Amino acid sequence: MAGVSLNKARTIVRKALAKGQELELKPLSVVVLDAGGHVQAFEREDGASPGRFDIARGKAYGAVMLGMSGSAQMARAEQQAYFMNAVNGVFGGAVIPVPGGVLLRDKKGDVIGAVGVTGDTSDNDAIAAMAGIEAAGLMGEA
Amino acid sequence: MAGVSLNKARTIVRKALAKGQELELKPLSVVVLDAGGHVQAFEREDGASPGRFDIARGKAYGAVMLGMSGSAQMARAEQQAYFMNAVNGVFGGAVIPVPGGVLLRDKKGDVIGAVGVTGDTSDNDAIAAMAGIEAAGLMGEA
Amino acid sequence: MAGVSLNKARTIVRKALAKGQELELKPLSVVVLDAGGHVQAFEREDGASPGRFDIARGKAYGAVMLGMSGSAQMARAEQQAYFMNAVNGVFGGAVIPVPGGVLLRDKKGDVIGAVGVTGDTSDNDAIAAMAGIEAAGLMGEA
Amino acid sequence: MAGVSLNKARTIVRKALAKGQELELKPLSVVVLDAGGHVQAFEREDGASPGRFDIARGKAYGAVMLGMSGSAQMARAEQQAYFMNAVNGVFGGAVIPVPGGVLLRDKKGDVIGAVGVTGDTSDNDAIAAMAGIEAAGLMGEA
């Protein structure tokens, strides 16, 4: 399965958490999924609520499965909520269509996975995700 | 598992029910969850409808898993319904995002569980929950 | 819905827990369901594992839904495991077919609910359940 | 929420993976759950199959929810397969009852979470888990 190496996934997670601390965000949780939507790495900061894994994964999972960033999914949900609800039906309810879900692309532009961040506002979550992705030398689409 | 003792949970349940009787509310149901969202104590008053366990738990479960009170969840649902729908998807449909779901915090402010009350209006449910929590000497966030 | 009063349900729960303490069993969890299989009261002792609500309910739920005690369900599972697996399919996987699930009957012999106890061996769980039921002046079928 | 700190969780994950490399095991995946069964940290080595997150979590989840190590769960499944099947029903099919699921206990003996390792034989998975737990200065029950 295409994906980033565990080494790069670690860098993404650590640097996203570091960005959250630098910006004094609430405790964050960060997941990296491979190109099949399967979990590769995850960390939840001390003080984050227990349900954060599911939310982080939901943001990244929708990105991979639909090939759409969290922002693009949110735009669609704003215009056509019943469509995103129905999409969630076929994906077992596992999709959270808001910013903080960021597509990972390789140099050719192919999707190689996604990052999901949750804990602060959706926009701040996306900023932290992008910081992690850049630190790993990858391209993100938020 | 962080949580209140069974002794304190009993006090919460009994005093919340007593508050409902004092205010002549409809028959109430009261649940106490631990910091992982797992049931510790529950009682349903005579005359309450049979589905009240699931509703009480749903109010408290969302509070624990998201670290947000029922009021805060309702505000988010009012602003962004598709987001709370999606959140509920990742939690198996188990979240009821309205008042009556009250976070329990310890003296440091850490979440140690939640109380869920249902049976009357959501606002009256929250009043009963807070009465139980105060009687147990704990801090609630409704 | 037929069922015991909350008052009697409380007695069952308390006396079952007291029996467990008297016999020095592991921490117990006790649920009382009404004649429709819906939760009326539950308590989990300090030190019990977090999943005990689901197990206690599963023991009592099978008893109500099938009109069979936990012992009778276990006998059937021992003889015909695939049948009890299939039964669980139609009940959403919610049935735990072992002792500790005890039918509650009124004086005419009609089922008015069930009690589920978990935490120690299945046989000890059933002993604690029967002690609670007898203390409430009801008839149990373990 | 009772649990280990993220710092300790990282140590567990890294040292369990290092043990696997030292013993030349197949690529491992390691999860740390808190005392409520919620994910705190996870890493999957390069070359592991994509479903490893669910298996690692399943091993650790059963340990937390039942308060039983993977070895104890396997012994029960060997003796009474229909019981462990039924238990899995009430936990949404999320339990993998084999070694590699290791309970984490604090100094008083209270369960504070669990570690799940998968990728090699169940017994080797448990060895790697214990190496991580010891490196973090915690007590494990495999």
UniProtKB/TrEMBL annotation, chains A, B, C, D:
Identification of the protein by name: Uncharacterized conserved protein GlcG, DUF336 family
Gene3D superfamilies hit by this protein: Haem-degrading domain
Domain of life according to the entry: Bacteria
Cross-referenced InterPro entries: GlcG_carb_metab_protein (IPR052517), PduO/GlcC-like (IPR005624), PduO/GlcC-like_sf (IPR038084)
